Amino acid sequence: MQKILIFTFFVLISVTTAYASPFTGGQNTGHTTREHVNQTQHEAGFFALQYSILLRNVNLAQRAMRSKMSTLGHEIKTHPNGQSFWFFMLFSFLYGIIHALGPGHGKSIVFSYFLSRKGTLLKGVIMGHLLTAVHTLSAIVIVLGAYFLLDLKGSHALTSASEPLKVTSYYLIIGLGIFILLHALYEAVVRIRTNGSVKKEADNKGLITISIISGLVPCPGAALLLSFALSLNILTTGLLGALFFTMGMGITTSLFGIISIHSRKILMHVAGKSSTAIAVLHTSFSVIAGFAIIATGWLLVATS
C-alpha cells in the first residue's frame, strides 16, 4: 500500500511540474464535455485527469476567496477597525494554503531537493517557508517599486517590472538542476572507484541557496493581493495580508518537503541493508531530482 501511495504521489509531482508556470498553468477556459473528459482520460491517464480536476477546483476556490476578500477590503476601507480586518487576515492565510496547491514550481523544487538528499522534518519546514517567503517578498518589492517609482498599478506593475528577474531566476533554476545532476553522477563514479558509500545530507548552505534562487520568481497571488490593497489605499492591511498569505503558502510547500523526506526514508528502508541497493537508489533519486529541476526551469522559460 505504501508503494502505491508513493507511486501515485510521484505521478502528481510530474503533472505539477508540467503545469509549472506560475502565471499561465492549469486554467480551464471553456466548458468540459463528456467526450473531452473521455479523450483527456485516455491521453493523460487516470491520475493526470484527476489532478487536472483538482487544479480546476483549486482555481475555482481561489476565485471565490478573492471575491470574498474584495468585499472585505471595501468594508475595511469604510471601517478600518472592524471585524472585516481580522476576517481579511484569515482569508489571506487560507488563500495562501489553497494558492500553493495550484500550479507552481516551489513544490517541485522542494520535493526534488529532498528526494536527492537525506533531510529532517525541521529542514523540510524551514525550506518550505523560506522559499515561500522569498517568493512573496520578491512580488512585494516589485509591486511597491513599480507603484511608487514607475507609477504602475495592478497587473502592469508585475508584468512590466519583473520580467528580467523572472527570466534570470528561471535560468538559475536550470543551472541548479544541472549542478545536482552532474554532482550525482560524480558521486556515483567516486563510489564505484573507491567501493565506498556517499551519504549526502541536506545542508543549510544548499537549502538557503536553492530557496533564495527559486523564490526570486515573484508570486502572482501576493502581487494581486497587494495591488488590490493599493487600489483601496489600505497598504498596511495589504502588507499584513501578504504576511498571512505567506504563512499559509509555507505550510503547503513544507508539506511537500515532508512527504518527500518520508518517501525517501521508506524507499531506503525497502532497500534494506544492501549497500549496492542503497547506492543505486541514492544515485537514482539524485538524477531524477536533477532532471526534474531542469525540466521545471525549462518549462518556466518556455512559458514565460
Automatic annotation (TrEMBL):
InterPro entries hit by this protein: Ni/Co_transpt_high_affinity, NiCoT_RcnA
Species, as recorded: Halodesulfovibrio aestuarii
Keyword Transcription regulation among UniProt keywords: no
Location(s) in or outside the cell: Cell membrane
Family: Belongs to the NiCoT transporter (TC 2.A.52) family.
Membrane disposition: Multi-pass membrane protein
Any matching Pfam family: NicO
Function comment: Efflux system for nickel and cobalt.
Transmembrane segments: 85-104, 125-149, 169-186, 207-232, 238-259, 279-301
Signal sequence range: 1-20
Stated name of the protein: Nickel/cobalt efflux system
Record's keyword terms, sorted: Cell membrane, Cobalt, Cobalt transport, Ion transport, Membrane, Nickel, Nickel transport, Signal, Transmembrane, Transmembrane helix, Transport
